[in-house]
Write a structure and sequence with these properties.
The complex is a heterodimer of chains A (315) and B (417). Chain A has helices spanning 42-49, 69-72, 90-100, 105-118, 134-146, 164-179, 191-197, 215-221, 271-285, 298-307, and strands at 3-13, 16-27, 31-36, 57-62, 65-66, 75-78, 152-156, 184-187, 200-205, 208-213, 225-230, 246-252, 255-260, 288-293. By secondary structure, chain A is α/β, with parallel strands linked by helices. Chain A has 2 domains: 3-219, 3-Layer(aba) Sandwich (Rossmann fold); 223-295, Alpha-Beta Plaits. Chain B folds into 2 domains: 30-64 and 189-415, no CATH class; 73-165, Periplasmic binding protein-like II (D-Maltodextrin-Binding Protein, domain 2, 3-Layer(aba) Sandwich). The longest helix of chain B has 34 residues, at 192-225. A 4-stranded mixed beta sheet of chain B has the order 2-1-3-4, with helices on both faces. Chain B has helices at residues 25-42, 44-70, 86-95, 108-117, 141-162, 167-176, 192-225, 228-233, 238-271, 281-307, 316-337, 345-350, 357-367, 372-400, 410-415; strands spanning 74-78, 100-104, 122-125, 132-135. With 417 residues, chain B is mostly helical. Classes of the chains: A alpha/beta (315), B mainly alpha (417). Chains A and B meet through helix 2, helix 3 and helix 6 of A and helix 1 and helix 8 of B.
């Protein structure tokens, strides 16, 4: 199965280091979510993948060979800055873009009709793009990325500015494309959506990939936490052995959250042992009504990763 | 979810390079040009401008024709007394290049009345040897010359007669005595039609070159400001995009120029406006088209590169000002000096200098003051600069067109990789 490989990209704009050693890959049929705060380097990475920007070093490969113009023809791209000819009709615009990507006139027309239908803008085909609402322009923009049956999809913020129905349509299209074997790389700030849609996510910060993998893997890598509903923490928390790495992160009457912080100092306890230690301490102080491991959402994982101090100060 | 279930061709990995006929470089350029062509030709502004210019040259030709028709001949009234002057009058008028029509009137009173109400331009009254010229306000210089010579001939004839000679024989001898002139530096002659053609060629080329080059600049900025350029450059090389745009808009402009030139030349030919002129209408028209192409390639490449430096339509004016000045200055010099003094050194120089020649040389060609080889040399000088211009414009364009936001410095665009 061919893979889109982003291999050790570095890019500086003047004195600002936009990308440092950016590395990840997206396999065929995989949906990869790209998250990170504004200015973290998502757009730069995608623009380099599309050859719109040149990296200072590193390479982007598809199926083992560097992405050249011939491969880029077969990428469906949705730039962060939406762009279509404002005074051109939707149908003519999509046919033109499909033709530029190497489709014959007949194929281009078929694809235009198919995608405007699927994306719900068929009734606006003969209108100029500037006459459409922003949401509909966004749908046409996605159609522009799909109209040449791309083998790879690179979408920068495809969900921004969409209403819930359009979000569902867009998610459906991405799933369907992935199911037919297309690797899908997209960026988004809507983390719940990324969590629902993606096979894997990459969290980037200051131009560097700080966490990458399936969401369950990221969860496993995060600091384990447990929720205790019982006696207030003040009655039992002090008995947790110091040096065990266990600490209370929040305490609200009967509800307490305890975390195993293995990062600052290596803990002698395995996560399972730590869970038992917490439970025993709480039981020793009184009745425990509920004891559960905390299941982190992507939002929490993201906050955790992004708020952690960077190991290396910005150059 | 109602997404398509139609089988999609999966062409991953195994496809041979070049299958499904990926657009070659040239066909990409053609597609880009085709888009420019269809969208521009459909634009109302373009159709209206072309029609207006076409109508202007045709109507201008017709007006010129009517004006020539009404003012062609000077009508001179002769009384029965002065009727004998008709033949010598026509002869000396012809010698002076003046078209004179003779009309017989009953007597001096009728002659004066005719001049008064405008049916006659002038009348000769009194005795044939000492006639009086009756005009409404004044006699123009050619008229004065013609009639003075007529009066002198009459005086001479009567003197010859008194001496016993034959006035007719003397006048024949006189008319056969002509001047032989050998000019060491002959001044090229120009007639009215050539001067009009010079103006039309100069103005037409200036307007069309200016508008078409501006269309290229606007097109570049439109793609930049709407950000569609990022989508395009993911699949098209910058030079292909620029070349396609220049080519497409160039064809659009050429159609416009051809319509106007053919309209003007056609009107002139049909109405016989240039029958009396030395103008080579076909060559003037053909050279205008050639100079449009040469000028358009140069100006539009320069403007495309400069326009790529800015991201907003409002900034086009300031960024392209140097090149626009480069068009206005030779145009003004060409149109104001060349028709009256086509051999002025500045006009001659400008008609060879690239970026100036397209606006000056066509005027000189219309005036008939350049040899064909000189025009060819001028075209070749301009064309010699084109490869360097293509390289430079392509570099600036490719480096600047994706940098949206603040205006990119020309120096940075030239340097950046």
């Amino acid at each position: 199965m061919p893979t889109l490989e982003i291999d050790h990209l570095d890019k500086a704009y003047g004195t600002v280091q936009a990308l440092r050693d950016m590395t990840f890959d997206v396999g065929s049929g995989e949906i990869f979510g790209f998250v990170g705060s504004n200015g973290a380097g998502k757009t730069t990475t995608m623009r380099i993948a599309l050859g719109v920007l040149a990296p200072d070093s590193g390479q982007v490969r598809w199926d083992g060979s560097p992405v050249d113009l011939e491969v880029r023809r077969r990428i469906g791209y949705m730039p962060e800055e939406r762009g279509l000819y404002p005074r051109m009709r939707v149908d003519q615009q999509l046919v033109y873009l499909a033709r530029l990507h190497g489709k014959t006139p007949a194929e281009a027309k078929d694809a235009m009709e198919r995608w405007t239908e699927i994306l719900g803008v068929a009734h606006r085909r003969t209108d100029e793009v500037q006459k459409l609402s922003l949401g509909n322009q966004q749908r046409v923009q996605l159609a522009a990325a799909l109209v040449h049956d791309p083998e790879i999809l690179v979408l920068d913020e495809p969900f921004s500015g969409l209403d819930p129905v359009a979000v569902d349509v867009m998610s459906g299209v991405l799933r369907e494309r992935a199911a037919s074997g297309v690797p899908v790389l997209f960026s988004s700030h809507q983390l719940d959506l990324v969590e629902r849609l993606c096979d894997r996510v990459g969290i980037i910060k200051d131009g560097r990939m700080v966490a990458e993998g399936a969401i369950d893997e990221l969860r496993a890598a995060a600091r384990p936490q447990w929720f205790v509903d019982g006696t207030p923490a003040s009655a039992w928390a002090p008995s947790l052995a110091s040096g065990s790495g266990l600490r209370v992160v929040s305490s609200d009457g009967p509800r307490t959250v305890v975390e195993l912080d293995g990062a600052s100092a290596p803990s002698p306890l395995s996560p399972d042992d730590a869970a038992q230690a917490v439970l025993q301490a709480a039981l020793a102080a009184g009745a425990v009504r509920s004891f559960t491991p905390v299941r982190h959402s992507l939002v929490e994982l993201y906050r955790d990763v992004v708020s952690a101090p960077t190991e290396e100060p910005a150059a | 979810m109602s997404t398509t279930t139609s089988p999609q061709p999966t062409r991953r990995g195994t496809r041979a390079p070049g299958d499904d006929a990926p657009a070659s470089a040239w066909s990409t350029v053609r597609m880009v040009a085709g888009r420019e062509l269809t969208t521009r030709l459909r634009s109302r502004a373009y159709v209206v401008t072309t029609l207006v210019m076409f109508v202007a040259v045709v109507v201008g030709g017709v007006v010129l024709h009517l004006a020539q028709g009404s003012s062609s001949a000077t009508v001179v009234g002769l009384t029965p007394q002065t009727a004998s002057l008709a033949q010598p009058l026509e002869a000396s008028a012809k010698a002076a290049g003046e078209d004179v029509e003779v009309e017989q009137v009953a007597d001096d009173a009728a002659a004066k009345k005719g001049v008064e109400d405008g049916t006659l331009d002038a009348a000769l009254t009194g005795d044939p040897a000492s006639f009086t010229v009756v005009v409404k306000k004044e006699l123009d210089t050619t008229g004065t010359a013609v009639l003075t010579s007529l009066r002198q001939q009459a005086a001479l004839a009567s003197a010859v007669q008194k001496l016993g000679g034959d006035p007719a024989q003397v006048s024949q001898q006189l008319s056969s005595a002509t001047l032989d002139v050998t000019a060491l530096e002959p001044q090229p002659t120009r007639d009215g039609a050539q001067i009009v053609a010079g103006y039309v060629a100069g103005i037409l080329l200036f307007i069309t070159l200016q508008t078409c080059a501006q269309l290229v600049a606007q097109g570049v900025v439109e793609e930049k400001s709407s950000r569609v350029v990022e989508l395009l450059l993911a699949t098209v090389r910058p030079w292909q995009l620029m070349a396609g745009k220049v080519l497409g808009i160039g064809v659009v402009g050429l159609i416009q120029v051809a319509v106007v030139v053919l309209g003007g030349a056609g009107t002139a030919a049909v109405l016989g406006l240039v029958d009396a002129s030395d103008i080579d209408l076909g060559a003037t028209a053909a050279w205008s088209l050639v100079w449009f192409v040469v000028g358009f390639v140069m100006y539009s490449l320069a403007l495309a590169a400069l326009a790529a430096l800015v991201s907003r339509q409002e900034d086009i004016g300031s960024v392209t000002a140097p090149v626009v000045m480069l068009m206005i200055v030779p145009y003004v010099i060409g149109i104001s000096i060349a028709p009256w003094n086509p051999d002025s050194p500045i006009v001659q120089w400008l008609s060879y200098i690239p970026f100036c020649a397209p606006l000056v040389m066509p005027i000189r060609i219309a005036l008939g003051t350049v040899e064909t080889w000189q025009a060819v040399v001028s075209v070749l000088i301009s064309l010699a600069l084109v490869p360097a211009l293509v390289w430079l414009a392509g570099r600036v364009y490719a480096n600047a067109v994706l940098r949206t936001g603040a205006r990119v410095k020309l120096r940075d665009a030239l340097r950046a990789a």
